[in-house]
Amino acid sequence: MRIGLMVDATCDLPRKFIDDHQIIVMPITIRIDEHTFVDVHDLVATEGYYQSEVGKRGHAAETAPLTVDEIRELFLGRLVLDYDAVFCLTVTSTRSPIFANTTQASFAILGAYRPIRQAAGNNSPFLMRIVDSKSLFSGQGVSAIEATRLIAADTGPGPIRERLAEVAAQTWAYVLPRDLQYLWARARKNGDRSVGLLSATLGTALDIKPLLQCFQGETKPVAKARGFEHGAEMLFAHAARAVKRGLLVPAMCVSYGGNRAELEALPGYGGLADACTEAGVTLYQSVMSITGMVNVGIGAVALGYAAAASDDTF
Description:
- The protein contains 12 helices and 13 strands.
- By secondary structure, the chain is α/β, with parallel strands linked by helices.
C-alpha cells in the first residue's frame, strides 16, 4: 500500500527530512502590506523573510491556509492517484482552521475519488485520515517523524492512526519568543488575550521572556526568564532532563526563527545535543517556518518532544 504523509506549513522539520520522506506540505499564504509569501518550507524564501525588513511587520500579517475547495482539488487532482492512503497531520485545531477545513474536504474527496482512480486503472479504495497533532511548530514535527517511521515499516493505516493519536496526546511543545511587544501585537491582531499590554510593556522594560507551552491543544505560559539567553538555557536544560528520563519517540525537534548558527550558540544547546547523543535520540534542527515567525516573531525558539509526563520545573 502506498501511504503518503501531509503536514501543513506550520510543522517545523528539516527541509532535507521533508524531501527524503516525500512529505507533502500544505501551503499557507501570508500577506504583509503589499508583500505575499507562500509558505511551503522553501529555505530561500524563509531566509529572505527573517533577513528582510518586512519580517518586522509580520505581526500585522493576514494568513490564509488552503480552503476546503483547494484541499479537495489537491487530492482529486493528484494525491488520490499517487497514493492509496494519505495521513493529514495538522496543527492543533484550537489555534487554526486547518483541521476543520481538511476534515470537511475529506467528505467530498472520499465521495468522488473512485472514477478518477478507475480511469487510471486502479479499482482499489482510497483512504484519507486526518490527525489533529494537538501541537504546533516543533511539537507537530515529532508526530510527523513517528509517522514516517511507521510508514517505512509497512505499518497498516489502523495502527498508524492509533499510534499518532497516542503521540499527539503526549507531545509537549514550547516556544520562547524574543520580542514580547511583537507577541502582544500579534495576539491583539488575532484577538488572543493571553498576552496583555501591561505585561508586554513591563516584560520588555525588564527584559522578561515568557516560556509558552502547548499541550493537548492548550497554550499557556509556564515560566519566565530574565533575558532571552537565560530563557533558552532554561528551556534546553528542561528538554535535556526529559531526554534523560526517556521519550516516547526518540526525537527532539528544535526550530529557530533565524540563522541556525545563532541557535547552536545559545546557552544550553550543546548540553541538549550531548544528552540526545548519549540517549540515542535524534536531534532535529530546523529553521522555523515563515508562518511560525509571523505568529511568534523572528528569533524565537520552538522545541517539541513526546513523553509520558513532563517535568514542570524550569
